Amino acid sequence: MATANLTLPAEFSGKAQFTLYARYDDPRLPGWENKWIISWKVQQLHPWFPVKEMKIHKHFWPQLQDAFFALEKTGLYTEIKTFHRCHELIQLPDSPVLSTHSWGAAIDLNPIDNPMGSQGAWSEDFIKLMARNGVFCGQSWTGNKEPMHFAMVDG
Ligand SMILES: [Zn+2]
Q1: How close is the Cα of 150 to the center of ligand 1, in Å?
Q2: Distance from Cα 146 to the centre of ligand 1, integer Å
Q3: Disulfide engineering: 139 pairs with which of 18, 40, 107, 120, CB 3.0-4.6 Å?
Q4: 71-104 residue pLDDT tens
Q5: Ligand 1 mean position to 17 CA, how many Å?
Q6: Axis crossing angle, helix 124-132 with helix 60-74, rounded to the nearest 10
Q7: CB atoms within 10 A of CB 44
Q8: pTM of this structure
Q9: How far away, in angstroms, is 140 Cα from ligand 1 center?
């Protein structure tokens, strides 16, 4: 019988968290950051991006980069105004569960226009293009929406 869940620490009890934990282990482990996190000099290829550099998971980076190229082709990149965070070791509000940001697998953009629980301000085209590149927006969630949030895992 499936008893494995009983031993799963609360920190990884979300669907997205469990996926990331199964693939990449516990992001709080010593040496984890050196193994998985890279520093992306974003503006070298995407001069419109609001910050020069961000720390990001090495497997999320190529997906986000492809999404950015697609945004440039379509002109949709102009919807990105501000960067809030990417890799940061944090928990969900009032919860022991680690945020997917802890793995560097999520990025928060335009937080002022897209507060937690709001419908979000991204165009449908923007959300669809990101999703086609494997970058999923919290604006599409059915529960409590987090439209500033884009991640390499859905949910
Ligand atoms: Zn986020």
Answers
A1: 7
A2: 7
A3: 120
A4: 999 999 999 999 999 999 999 988 999 999 999 9
A5: 13
A6: 140
A7: 10
A8: 0.93
A9: 13
What are the residue ranges spanned by the domains of the chain? Answer: 37-151
Q: Distance from the CA of 1 to the center of ligand 1, in angstroms?
A: 35
Residue closest to 37 by CA, chosen among 94, 106, 135, 140:
106
Ligand 1 center from residue 76 Cα (angstroms) = 20
Report pLDDT for 8.
Answer: 82
pLDDT in tens, 48-63: 999 999 999 999 999 9
pLDDT at residue 7, as a whole number: 74
Which of 122, 151, 118 lies closest to 136, judged by CA? Answer: 151
Written as six digits, the tokens of 141 are 């969630």
* 86 in Cβ contact with 42 (< 8 Å): no
Q: Thinking of the domain 37-151, which architecture would CATH place it in?
A: 2-Layer Sandwich (3.30)
- In the reported structure, the alpha carbon of residue 87 is separated from the centroid of ligand 1 by a whole-number distance in angstroms of 10
Phi, psi of 54 (to 5 degrees): -145, 155
Cβ–Cβ < 8 Å for 84, 109: yes
